[in-house]
């Protein structure tokens, strides 16, 4: 699902320095293999690594900082106030839906336009050789992008809005605990840092559930049509999967939160999915990595299915034996696991 780990050194590394041995016949591009472990939960603990991780993700203009700034803007200017949300009414619910529709369309559409229509980066740092699928009955409308847009903007935006509206109503009426920055500054900041970790935990176990044969064949296979992913693929899911995936937002019904936390979580789960499914590892500006996008870790999941169910934030795949490090040995093990699961 959504993976935001990046490194500052990688962010400024010239693309001209990529070595040819990092390419292969199977991939247009992949990072150095086997994949390393960037999780802050690795053992033994490394305080210096943790400090660098915090600096990269929260003290630079990272994707998480940008998501936080967007959440603040949504709170101030775009979403209705909690006072308005005390009573269910068509007007403010429609407002939430319109804002969410516009965010998903702008993020996924903008990335698709930049990488796949204008081809501004060519195939530099693109994992797959292939372009998006067309003229294939596998897809609704015989087109991968139209198929993904239909599910993302239809079921995706509707259910994202539904979870958000209910959560705002609960907050507005005192059924969900609400905090302010002035009263709880430390928890306010900590909860922003912890939310992506909670999302990673929730995503791993929901994803494992969706890969059980009964649910995979009837539900999750729709998302996995996208072996060659693109920005519109990230939020393209069966309605049942959307419901399970977005149930992560229910944490705000229990854990004290500010509306900014909820909106950050909304951005992380919705528009953030477009970023992690771009099909490219990073955005390049003047041949230098400036923004982390997709990860080869999750690209391996879309290629081989029964591996890398989570993301690199939490080491669940390593702990539970479902990690694919990009090696031929890991591919053989993953294929054997798939054969055992599906016969």
Succession of helices and strands: HHHHHHHHHHEEHHH
Question: What's the overall average pLDDT, rounded?
Answer: 91
Report how far the terminal alpha carbons are from each other. 26 Å
Q: Note the overall shape.
A: globular
Main β-sheet: number of strands, strand sense, barrel status?
2 strands, antiparallel
Strand % is: under 5%
Domain Fatty acid hydroxylase: 196-322
Main location: membrane
Subcellular location: Membrane
Protein name: Sterol desaturase family protein
Description:
The chain contains 13 helices and two strands, in the order H-H-H-H-H-H-H-H-H-H-E-E-H-H-H. Helix 3 (63-78) packs across helix 9 (259-269) and helix 4 packs antiparallel against helix 5 (144-172). The chain is mostly helical and 343 residues long.
Q: Topology, please?
A:
Elements: H1 8-11, H2 47-58, H3 63-78, H4 90-117, H5 144-172, H6 185-210, H7 213-218, H8 239-246, H9 259-269, H10 271-276, E1 282-285, E2 288-292, H11 296-304, H12 316-319, H13 328-342
Helix pairs in contact: 3-9, 4-5, 5-8, 5-9, 6-9
């Amino acid at each position: 699902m959504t993976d935001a780990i990046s490194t500052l050194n990688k962010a400024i590394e010239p693309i001209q320095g990529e070595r040819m041995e990092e390419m292969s016949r199977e991939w247009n591009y992949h990072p150095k293999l086997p994949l390393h472990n960037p999780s802050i939960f690795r053992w033994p603990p490394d305080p210096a690594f943790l400090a660098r991780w915090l600096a990269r993700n929260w003290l630079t203009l990272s994707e998480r900082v940008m998501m936080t700034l967007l959440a603040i803007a949504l709170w101030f200017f775009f979403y209705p106030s909690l006072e308005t949300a005390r009573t269910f009414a068509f007007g403010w619910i429609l407002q939430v839906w319109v804002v969410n529709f516009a965010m998903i369309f702008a993020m996924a559409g903008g990335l698709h336009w930049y990488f796949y229509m204008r081809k501004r980066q060519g195939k530099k740092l693109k994992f797959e050789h292939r372009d998006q699928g067309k003229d294939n009955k596998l897809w609704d409308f015989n087109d991968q992008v139209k198929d993904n847009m239909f599910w993302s903007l239809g079921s995706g935006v509707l259910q994202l809005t539904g979870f958000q509206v209910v959560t705002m109503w609960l907050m507005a009426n005192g059924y969900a605990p609400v905090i302010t920055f002035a009263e709880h500054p430390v928890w306010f900041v900590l909860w922003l840092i912890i939310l992506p970790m909670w999302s990673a935990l929730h995503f791993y176990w929901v994803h494992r559930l969706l890969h059980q044969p009964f649910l995979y064949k009837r539900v999750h296979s729709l998302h996995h049509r996208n072996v060659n992913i693109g920005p519109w693929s990230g939020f393209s899911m069966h309605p049942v999967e959307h419901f399970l995936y977005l149930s992560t937002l229910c944490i705000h019904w229990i854990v004290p939160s500010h509306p900014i936390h909820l909106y950050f979580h909304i951005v992380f789960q919705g528009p953030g999915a477009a970023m992690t499914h771009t099909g490219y590892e990073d955005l390049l500006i003047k041949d230098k990595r400036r923004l982390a996008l997709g990860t080869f870790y999750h690209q391996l999941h879309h290629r081989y299915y029964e591996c890398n169910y989570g993301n690199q934030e939490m080491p669940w795949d390593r702990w539970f034996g479902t990690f694919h490090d990009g090696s031929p040995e890991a591919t053989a093990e993953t294929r054997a696991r798939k054969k055992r699961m599906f016969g």
